């Protein structure tokens, strides 16, 4: 099998043979245990309370090796980050034909949320048509990108939580929603919406409690004159805090330190309403600068996979609303 590689999937225990790579691939037992524990917690506890995580860094040996869901060692073929994304989310078995129907879909295409085309609030859906049980606790992912991350979470807690993805790139929303329909999931929905102008009304009219909000690797808008385009602004922070149920959580992260610091400063400023998770949970360890050492969600986002593949650090903070 000179041009094929055997991959062990730690999720289902099955081996898969893929072309292009000829060196063996072995599972990392820690991610497998983490995923099993995380799944158990989702069934036994609130779906938003897990602190299970995966190793944050990749490892390099004689051959190029990458680890999180699996360790991949390649002698003479370079493994690209999209391949790692496919491995991380392999259990979802999402079809490629949907992407073909929509045309090329770019997850990191930056858009201007202040444009007039994004200034109209999204229509609030009939939540009874969107979710099987609209009274369940709600997680909102602001800037849901391709949607794989949220779909992965939703599939693991079909009866204990609802998931709402807000995304400003319409093609990504269409593809994600098609995937949801393909998987017949009744606890997740994606919307084409600018969170800056739509978040408040959406969560106000949702029948159940808002328990978790994530903002993961948002568009950085590097130029100073474009900082006003960043999604985390005072207005949104206030809206999240005011609508979050006591005990609810906010998770933010970025692979760009400047952006991570900007988000951190704004949420840290609300210390009367929020506390960082390490204040109440000693197992949630931080580095000397106060960034979480491990991912608390049980799986990485696509951007996280790409960034770590390139050797970047992910800066993470998890807040909890005071009771």
Write structural notes for this entry.
This protein has ten helices and twelve strands. The protein is of the alpha/beta class. It has a seven-stranded mixed beta sheet, sandwiched between helices. A three-stranded antiparallel beta sheet has the order 3-5-4. α2 packs across α10 (302-309) and α7 packs parallel to α8 (234-243). The longest helix is centred in the N-terminal third of the chain and has 16 residues, at 29-44. The chain is globular, with a radius of gyration of 19 Å. It starts with a strand and ends with a strand.
Task: Looking at this protein, list some descriptive labels.
single chain; 323 residues; alpha/beta; 7-stranded mixed β-sheet; 3-stranded antiparallel β-sheet; 10 helices; 12 strands
Helix fraction, binned, reads 25-40%
Please give the alpha-carbon distance between the first and last residues: 59 Å
Total number of beta strands: 12
Largest sheet: 7 strands, mixed
Percent of sequence in beta strands: 15-25%
Rg measurement, Å: 19 Å
| Tally of helical segments | 10
**Whole-number average pLDDT?**
78
H/E element string? EEEHEEHHHEHEHEHEHEHEHE
Sum up the overall morphology in one term.
Answer: globular
Structural class: alpha/beta
Q: Which residues sit in consecutive blocks of at least 5 with pLDDT less than 50?
A: 1-46, 49-75
């Amino acid at each position: 099998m000179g041009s094929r590689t055997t991959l062990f999937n730690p999720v289902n225990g099955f081996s898969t043979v893929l072309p292009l790579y000829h060196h063996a691939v072995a599972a990392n037992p820690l991610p497998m245990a983490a995923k099993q524990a995380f799944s158990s917690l989702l069934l036994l506890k609130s779906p938003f309370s897990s602190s299970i995580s995966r190793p944050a860094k990749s490892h390099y040996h004689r051959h190029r090796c990458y680890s999180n869901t699996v360790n991949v060692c390649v002698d003479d073929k370079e493994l690209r980050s999209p391949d790692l994304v496919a491995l991380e989310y392999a259990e979802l078995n999402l079809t490629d034909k949907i992407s073909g129907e929509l045309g090329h879909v770019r997850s990191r295409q930056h858009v201007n949320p202040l444009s007039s085309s994004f200034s109209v609030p999204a229509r609030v859906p009939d939540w009874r048509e969107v979710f099987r049980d609209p009274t369940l606790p709600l997680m909102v992912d602001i800037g849901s990108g391709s949607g794989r991350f949220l779909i992965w979470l939703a599939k693991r807690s079909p009866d204990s939580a609802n998931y709402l993805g807000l995304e400003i790139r319409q093609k990504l929303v269409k593809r994600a929603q098609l995937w949801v329909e393909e998987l017949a999931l009744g606890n997740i929905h994606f919307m084409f919406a600018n969170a800056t102008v739509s978040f408040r009304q959406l969560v106000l009219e949702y029948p159940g409690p808002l328990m978790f909000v994530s903002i993961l690797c948002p568009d950085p808008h590097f130029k100073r004159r474009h900082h006003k385009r960043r999604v985390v602004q005072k207005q949104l922070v206030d809206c999240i805090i005011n609508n979050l149920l006591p005990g609810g959580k906010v998770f933010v992260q970025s692979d760009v330190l400047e952006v991570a610091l900007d988000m951190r400063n704004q949420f840290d400023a609300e210390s009367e309403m929020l506390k960082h998770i390490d204040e109440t949970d000693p197992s949630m360890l931080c580095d000397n600068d106060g960034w979480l050492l491990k991912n608390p969600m049980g799986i990485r986002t696509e951007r996280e996979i790409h960034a770590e593949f390139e050797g970047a650090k992910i800066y993470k903070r998890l807040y909890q609303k005071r009771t």
